[in-house]
Amino acid sequence: MRAVTWQGKRSISVDEVPDPVIQEPSDAIIKVTSTAICGSDLHLYEILGPYMKKGDILGHEPMGIVQEVGSAVRNLKVGDRVVIPFNIACGTCLMCRLDLQSQCETTQVREKGLGAPIYGYSELYGSVPGGQAEYLRVPFADYGPIKVGQDLPDIRYLYLSDIVPTAWQAVQYANVPDGGTLTVFGLGPVGQFAARAGVHLGYRVIGIEPVPERRAMAERHGVETLDFHGNIGDELREMTGGRGPESVLDAVGMEAHGSPVGTFAQHAAGLLPDPLAQKAIEKAGVDRLSVLHASIDVVRRGGTISISGVYGGMADPMPMLTLFDKQIQMRMGQCNVKRWIDDLLPLVEDPADPLGVTDLMTHQIPLDEAPEAYEVFQKKQDHCIKVVLKP
Predict the structure, then answer these.
(1) Taking every annotated instance into account, which residue ranges of this chain make up the domain Alcohol dehydrogenase-like N-terminal (predicted)?
(2) DSSP 215-275
(3) Residue 157 in contact with residue 83, Cβ under 8 Å?
(4) Regarding beta strands 204-208 and 224-226, do their DSSP bridges make them parallel or antiparallel, or are they unpaired?
(5) Burial class (CB in 10 A: 0-12, 13-18, 19+), 282
(6) May I ask the CATH architecture of the domain 166-332?
(7) pTM, two decimal places
């Protein structure tokens, strides 16, 4: 089959690789019909390369048609149309029963001290072959796959694999009070859906984003927007009665603009041999923290910060005095996709499309054009906001 493979920093290719096969009775094989490039994939493309091996298959946002099922699979049959959540969970352990599927005790990547594996996301999360490919092996197929109808186009369902539930969870974690204001830093794909979810839930939403076309997209969905600049805290306080927003959502993460020290640390780590680079990432502060620090500055005293953007440093400097003095609550973590599907499936199937799932994709291209698409997406060229690959 053809698959998108990692070859080095800022280097991917589309190669012929062996087809996946059933390895456990609980496995299924799907034929991928749509698969997306996630903002998190760009971390592998740039920063987390020390955890990648040449030839690793990328991608964790796929959907498709069931081609084969293992002997123990009862809830799926050949021909079912399914979306595959990005995290791999068993559905029966304590964490899964608590709806913390990203912490699944059966599948945890214990050798790295991390949670549930993620398709196509480095040795940090299990080195599981990803979904930017023609076919995908799906472990724990009786639990993970989300069965969907046959009539609506893929684009109505595809984002249930990651970014719609990630955004929804982030808004839930933001604990916005009735009549409150939610500020979303970063209007990439997750930030777009988080902002729209906030509007759908009746909040005032202010999106912060330096890229004009991303601001324009959010404004189409009732979001107030501002450019990201050095006085953003003063402007937000002025817009919110002098106190700041009750809830702030960081949808940017480790590659934020305006963080020269973090940028230097990331590039320096990337120049080291992989074992040393891993130690630098695991023992040092290598995140760009401008957005997180801005979130701490602008949030109202007693407010909540929700973090959906991925961070990777283990010793990032944090303004603990401010966090403590302002009595700020913080909540974060990988999305527990299955936890939110019952809430979200009706919304993505709603003819009114309240979350605007049909208004996000800017580029739909063949799988073979993935290398060019990664570069365009990373560099924010050609008004690129979301890329969907068609195997």
Answers:
(1) 25-142
(2) HHHHHTTT-EEE---TTHHHHHHHHTTTT--SEEEE---TB-SS-HHHHHHHHHHHTS-HH
(3) yes
(4) parallel
(5) middle
(6) 3-Layer(aba) Sandwich (3.40)
(7) 0.92
Query: What number of other Cβ atoms are within 10 A of residue 334's Cβ?
Result: 22
Q: Confirm if 207 and 187 have CB atoms less than 8 A apart.
A: yes
In the chain, % helix, strand, coil (3-state, to 5) comes to 35, 20, 45
Q: Answer yes or no: are the C-beta atoms of 106 and 121 closer than 8 Å.
A: no
> Of the candidates 175, 232, 176, 224, which has an alpha carbon nearest to the alpha carbon of residue 196?
224
pLDDT tens digit sequence for 126-156: 999 999 999 999 999 999 999 999 999 999 9
Condensed to tens digits (0 to 9), the pLDDT of residues 260-302 reads: 544 444 444 454 556 655 655 655 555 789 999 999 999 999 9
Size of the chain in residues? 391
Topology of domain 2-147+361-390, CATH? Quinone Oxidoreductase; Chain A, domain 1 (3.90.180)
Residues in CB range of 288: below 8 A, 6 or more apart: 254, 255, 256, 257, 258, 259, 262, 263, 266
Q: Where are the beta strands (DSSP E) in 127-172?
A: 135-138, 146-147
Residue 188, SS3 per DSSP? coil
